[in-house]
Amino acid sequence: MLGNINIVECNQNYREALTKSILFFQAQRSGSLPPNQQVTWRSSSALSDGRLANVDLTGGYYDAGDNVKFNFPMAFTTTMLSWGTLEYGKKMGAQLEDARVAIRWATDYLIKCANNMPEKLYVGVGDPNLDHKCWERPEDMDTARTVYSVSSKNPGSDVAGETAAALAAASLVFRKVDPKYSKLLVKTAQKVFEFALKYQGAYSDSLGYAVCPFYCSYSGYKDELLWGAAWLFRATNAVNYYNLVKSWGASDQPDIFSWDNKYAGAHIDYILGENPLKKSYMVGYGPNFPKKIHHRGSSLPSIAAHPQHIGCNEGNQQFFSSPNPNPNILVGAVVGGPNQNDEYADDRGDYSHAEPATYINAAIVGPLAYFSGLP
Hints:
With 375 residues, the chain is mainly alpha-helical. It has 13 helices and three strands.
């Protein structure tokens, strides 16, 4: 019911918030950073990702405050970024190209992950159990960069279905500006979806030790198959995808992502500071925002400021436990937020409230674009 909102009384600078919400993704980049990198306290990292499996899996995004690449949330992030760009791209102005760049940083990586199809789909890099014990900059990390995949014998229809959705949605973003790349995206999406459909099963069952409790597939995999089919139908207009959506959609019951619960969407100003604490939960936006977020790169000094290697234990002892604000401001990052009583401790150790994530930012880009485009 957007028409009932009194826009005149809004005091937020949505254009600034939009710009910063997209800039956040540069700080989450893995791989070789380009010369025009704007978040200058980050440097290239994880340049050997995939080597343990004799494949190139460099690039993509670290999902949150850690240094692991989990493809399930990364693919969802990509789908949501693409969806927001498709719906509100005309309202983004100069930020439209930045949004496309953010999407492509993920899809370039997801395409690499599908290069060995139909034998296997790579779905992540980095041992989360070891990584989460360390407090290291991405540029310093020396934990195992274990490669994870799903296959016909160890299926993962959920992560594959979401990957297909991401690639299909992104193909629509690039359809007019880069037709060749768009065709590659949709072709890869079809290949990945065929794999998801043919070898059905939850990736939590195949890779539980590596993805749970971090990103278990609690809802099963049928929702991702439906989601992937829906985006492929939009991208191709192929009747077989339509038939899948029609046959599955009638029996599946919606859960959180539904028409019924709109409370979070009706509060996008609460996040920006219209709350009892008058605190912005977007880092770098407004005068009062979280200063000690749960994020390794933000809380550790940059390579430029501290070129010496910072080891796992040293990072924990000297920086994770430090009472000081993070030395690098992770501009645009939206943190988990306050508790149910509108309290926020700004505690680096409280990851459930103080940690940002790509999929949080991806969901807010579209709404911010909508409001920033209003007169």
